[in-house]
């Protein structure tokens, strides 16, 4: 068609076929609603030791490093099986995988309340960690049920179930304080032991609702596909790069969710309840802004959003990692008899600290969606397996980071070393991404590699002389 024959703007060609968006299949809404509720509860159970850890530390006399491993082993088990969980959901249906996760997590949560030693708690924390693998199972399940034009919204709604990390922060401190020293239902001790029992009951109720209300004839898009084909993306360096990004925006989010309550109590002297509420100001934006991050990525491009994300994270962690204190300089005794002077004093109060952590949470929430936006662009036919792999490797960062926080604090004697670790991690991600972008541009346009100005601008400057 020539330009003259092209229909005017705003009109439709008579030969054009109108785009008809298919409706969602019956049951898709129930799958989305119940999987989101289940994921929120499973996520809350997965990270419950972030708050329970403090009264557990007091009861069992644990060190900070022992306490960090209690949370870390739960996070580890919630990362190891993310790829298999996504593959199993594709092969056998997300409904079956979710039912297994809900019932098994309920059993292990109940047993946590009966633990009588640190060793038993460590084993049970690892077992409760199975709950963390619900993310990739839910992504695969909802992808199978939602039409293409609704997948972005549906996966954003489901992914916002990360806010489950705040559930324990809200209910546990008040419940622990109100029930400490008592016995409930004749068998359950009050205090921190009542919280996992409550989760066990809620998880079983959710399992029953999911069994009754979701379609029994599940969708299984991966049935019959060779396992080798699903695991093939593991050979691509790009997948590992995306995984490192996800360590920074999701693994660090998980790690801080369990680490911040202790940080607030130990360094600002607040109560456990206040520490939990302050931690929620980090968790909410880091969870609920995920759909916003997806919209930004659609609108401006995922790579540009990642630049914004890493820039905000570097700025906030760069300030948070600064220790309170001052610089000591040598001066002449005529100015100061002691021969030294203290200059550039620096300290951070609670309000600016909480504000910077809130900003860090906003960056992580937006960045999580931007990382996953890359995946369908580079691996359109392998979203499930690549997404599961990135989720698994990213969540493993949540396992390694809490002990690393503890060791860095112990080595330096500075609590702010926690944020130095995050600053270094974010800097590594930003440098790798920028190097990749520059290298890619040089490959696509090698003739411009030596030009630091726009070629047309340089030409005009040359002719004007």
TrEMBL record:
Pfam families xref list: MFS_1
Transmembrane segments: 31-54, 66-84, 96-113, 119-141, 153-176, 196-213, 242-260, 272-293, 305-323, 343-366, 378-401, 413-435
Superkingdom of the source species: Bacteria
Major facilitator superfamily (MFS) profile domain ranges (all copies): 30-445
Membrane topology annotation: Multi-pass membrane protein
Segments of this protein annotated with the region Disordered: 1-23
Subcellular location as annotated: Cell membrane
Predominant cellular place of this UniProt entry's protein: membrane
UniProt keyword list: Membrane, Nitrate assimilation, Transmembrane, Transmembrane helix
Family affiliation: Belongs to the major facilitator superfamily. Nitrate/nitrite porter (TC 2.A.1.8) family.
Protein name, entry field: Nitrate/nitrite transporter
